[in-house]
Amino acid sequence: MVQSSVLGFPRIGVLRDLKKANEAYWAEKISQADLLAEGKRLRIAHWKIQKDAGVDIIPSNDFAYYDHILDHIQLFNAAPERYSSQKLDPIDEYFAMGRGHQKGGVDVPALEMVKWFDSNYHYVKPTLQDNQTFSLAKDPKPVREFLEAKEAGFLTRPVLVGPVSFLALAKADRGSSVDPITLLEKLIPVYVELLKALKAAGAESVQIDEPVLVFDLKPEVKAAFKPAYEAIAALGSAAPEVVVATYFGDIVHNFDVLPAFASLKGLHVDLVRNPEQLEPVLKQLGPTQILSAGVVDGRNIWKNDFKKSIDLIQTAIAALGADRVIVATSSSLLHTPHTLASEKKLPAEVYEWFSFASEKVKEVAIIAKAVTNPESVKAELEANAATVKARSESARTNDPKVKERQAQVTPEQHIRKSTFDSRYAQQKTHLKLPLFPTTTIGSFPQTQEIRIQRNKFTKGEITEEQYDAFIRKEIDLAVQIQDELDLDVYVHGEPERNDMVQYFGERLTGYVFTTHAWVQSYGSRCVRPPIIVGDISRPLPMTVKESKYAASVSKKPMKGMLTGPVTCLRWSFPRNDVHQSVQCQQLALALRDEVIDLEKNGIFVIQVDEPALREGLPLRKGAERDAYLEWAVDSFKLATAGVEDSTQIHSHFCYSEFQDFFHGISAENRTYTDIIIAIAALDADVLSIENSKSDAKLLKVFIDESYPRHIGPGVYDIHSPRVPAEEEFKQRISEMLQFLRPGQLWINPDCGLKTRKWDEVKGALTHMVNAAKFFREQYKDQA
Ligand code: MET
Ligand SMILES: [Zn+2]
């Protein structure tokens, strides 16, 4: 019989319950026991949803309070000494690594957090030492949660991140130079001990994720699979059966690694992203190995096309037999919202097109039944075929006017009037900027009061005039605080924006919105991506009102703030019926009109944020990556190149997009050179990039690529409540000056400040501005 399986379930709960619990715990409003009880309640609820849906193989240890890689750091006792020496309670040490800790005389910044493959989820990067040791934590979490499930009546399959991926995704700590993969030998015994403990607890099988198999790996990493998995296989029946899971790409180029898994139970591959890998993968499996076929998309919200999935599963069954095939989600469902059932406001037509995590788990179960006994799910199959057909024929998806405008786009529309040097000369006179100009990235704290007023406005409890007046008051406050801080380029603070993508989506055609479809982005931070269902256009200006008002009350240049086309695309759930480049160009045209309107209304510094540009980069070098970079860069240029030379275009990138710490990836495949070349090609006058947790020497790539324009590498970690001292800012700036020219350096935080509190922001920015002034004085001859 064909079984069904889920690789992981979202953790946050129906109403972002986990976010609320975490934040209440951090604010000391609930006890540790309360937090742990809430975690348990969520885990049990999620197992039950899957069991009720008829899923055969249900995961455990997919839950994490903050991040699952961070869980593994603690599981292997691999916390850097600056955390472990604080003697914090384990859960507090855990959160200290995730978000920094500044309390009770302890002051440690967070570990670095970076994007998980090409997704908008962020993991905490294992940060390892030259003399790193590993051991199994007391009361290991995978065992504890397996037993918890068992006690509640669920026999689960624990999920572990594999040893090779753990190390390949790690980096050496500042001051260490170890290549993490060389630590494998020390790590293997910990997995051996853990697997034995899981077996002893009653686990029959485990899922070991080795997602790095979708990359082009450097030889040392490839070679690591053999010793790692031979040690695991040698455990025989002392360990649970092992299924190695890969996702977000194909693994065909790494087939030479597969012999390392020969004695394991089987392999999971992503057939949503790469259905064409099915045939070659089938040929690679050993005579008794199983295939876990990922046919239900863990990364998007579209209803599964059962017919397509069933065809793939039938092909696998024909080759292996029904007992050796498992119907699975393509990846963990972490990247999808909890349940469609919460959506009461979607148009009925499109509601039918979607499937969130709680519906996807039913889909895997239905597909498994469909290949075993189609009669038993006849009604479901018919209904599915009808919706798939209805969506493809819906008028909602197609706007001929948008298509017409796209057909008329010219190459000239992508190019600014003059080169950077001559533009900059005009901007300098126009904007009167000092050396080391200080600015922020756009948002200021989204206070409780802002949320309350927005809510009231959405519910119709206050009028538009009242809401606008409130927003103007918030802008006044932001301007006044920037006056006090003495920043050089102001922002209006984005109080009117619920979210940097949703806000724009709500002002464009082609989008629909959910009310509860939250997805975890990092830690307790969740996003609610809007959904692109049809062709996109801009009926009216989107940001002019607020920016114009802000400029009118400000004595310094006011930066207009837009979310770039690639980010609007990537942080929405995109259509799966039209190529992403087409959707992106539609967004670019809408933003182009907005940029020009801002300029017409007296905004002469315009920042177009593209934090998702790096995340969207196809994971392997080659034609797909080149094509992506071309259309992504073109979209940005199409959006921004319509302005005068004297208008300064900024762009912003966060989450360490530039520097590729992936020690596991072969040098030729490192992404930073590609991305730097692409960033240079954007032709933005000023870039701000997240950098506060990275080693400044990585900025050397800008020298290597002789980057001519201006850059503000972030000096303030906005993910952490910590307020860095002035000395710390000076230290960062002087490190940067080893790699960047004083005349090209801007001083700014890593990213927007919406998640911070005002007192933190004021404290940190005061120190930041003072540090900038210190260097301005030192370098005054070069002004
Ligand atoms: C994730 S990038 C965020 C940029 C945006 N302008 C902000 O300041 O919030
Ligand atoms: Zn950012």
From TrEMBL:
- Compositional bias, Basic and acidic residues, is annotated for 390-406
**What Enzyme Commission number(s) apply to this enzyme?**
2.1.1.14
What InterPro entries does the record tag this protein with? Cbl-indep_Met_Synth_N (IPR013215), Cobalamin-indep_Met_synthase (IPR006276), Met_Synth_C/arc (IPR002629), UROD/MetE-like_sf (IPR038071)
Which residues are Zn(2+)-binding?
A: H652, C654, E690, C751
Family (UniProt): Belongs to the vitamin-B12 independent methionine synthase family.
Q: Where does 5-methyltetrahydropteroyltri-L-glutamate bind?
A: K19, N120, R525, C526, W571
The record's section on CDD domains has: CIMS_C_terminal_like, CIMS_N_terminal_like
Quote the pathway field: Amino-acid biosynthesis; L-methionine biosynthesis via de novo pathway; L-methionine from L-homocysteine (MetE route): step 1/1
State where L-homocysteine binds.
I441, G442, S443, D609
Biological process according to GO: L-methionine biosynthetic process; methylation
Binding positions (L-methionine): I441, G442, S443, E494, D609
| Cofactor, how bound (note) | Binds 2 Zn(2+) ions per subunit.
Chain positions covered by the region annotation Disordered: 388-415
User: What is the organism of origin for this protein?
Assistant: Lasiosphaeris hirsuta
Q: Which UniProt keywords apply?
A: Amino-acid biosynthesis, Metal-binding, Methionine biosynthesis, Methyltransferase, Transferase, Zinc
Query: Which cofactor is essential here?
Result: Zn(2+)
Q: Which GO terms describe its molecular function?
A: 5-methyltetrahydropteroyltriglutamate-homocysteine S-methyltransferase activity; zinc ion binding
Query: So what does this one do?
Result: Catalyzes the transfer of a methyl group from 5-methyltetrahydrofolate to homocysteine resulting in methionine formation.
| UniProt domain Cobalamin-independent methionine synthase MetE C-terminal/archaeal: residue ranges | 436-773
Annotated protein name in UniProt: 5-methyltetrahydropteroyltriglutamate--homocysteine S-methyltransferase
Residues annotated as catalytic: H719
- Cobalamin-independent methionine synthase MetE N-terminal domain residues: 4-316
| Pfam families hit by this protein | Meth_synt_1, Meth_synt_2
